Amino acid sequence: MEITGNLNLVGYGLASIGSAIGVGLIFAAYINGVARQPEAQRILQPIALLGFALAEALAILGLVFAFVL
């Protein structure tokens, strides 16, 4: 039995787990911050969305590299 192919998509799958954990931590910190100080929601929300966008951008970039390589 011979196995052919590459492990790019397996590597992307493992990398996307890290991105999912990062997004969870970002929103957990946001919810915790708003629960402690509700008046800070307008300040914390853009920061949380920026962190979410950056974490997801890294995951999408990994997907692109998995298909390119």
From TrEMBL:
Membrane-spanning parts: 12-35, 47-68
Membrane topology value: Multi-pass membrane protein
Cellular component annotations (GO), alphabetically ordered: plasma membrane; proton-transporting ATP synthase complex; proton-transporting two-sector ATPase complex, proton-transporting domain
Record bears the keyword Cell division: no
Subcellular location(s) per record: Cell membrane; Membrane
Record bears the keyword Cytoplasm: no
Main subcellular location: membrane
Site (Reversibly protonated during proton transport): E56
Chain ranges of the V-ATPase proteolipid subunit C-like domain: 12-69
InterPro entries assigned to the protein according to its UniProt record, in alphabetical order: ATP_synth_F0_csu, ATP_synth_F0_csu_DDCD_BS, ATP_synth_F0_csu_sf, ATPase_proteolipid_c-like_dom, F/V-ATP_Csub_sf
Pfam families according to UniProt: ATP-synt_C
GO MF term set: lipid binding; proton-transporting ATP synthase activity, rotational mechanism
UniProt keyword list: ATP synthesis, Cell membrane, CF(0), Hydrogen ion transport, Ion transport, Lipid-binding, Membrane, Transmembrane, Transmembrane helix, Transport
Xref: HAMAP family: ATP_synth_c_bact (MF_01396)
PANTHER family in UniProt: ATP SYNTHASE LIPID-BINDING PROTEIN, MITOCHONDRIAL, ATPASE PROTEIN 9
Record-stated family: Belongs to the ATPase C chain family.
Role, per record: F(1)F(0) ATP synthase produces ATP from ADP in the presence of a proton or sodium gradient. F-type ATPases consist of two structural domains, F(1) containing the extramembraneous catalytic core and F(0) containing the membrane proton channel, linked together by a central stalk and a peripheral stalk. During catalysis, ATP synthesis in the catalytic domain of F(1) is coupled via a rotary mechanism of the central stalk subunits to proton translocation.
Name recorded for this polypeptide: ATP synthase subunit c
Organism listed in the record: Citricoccus muralis
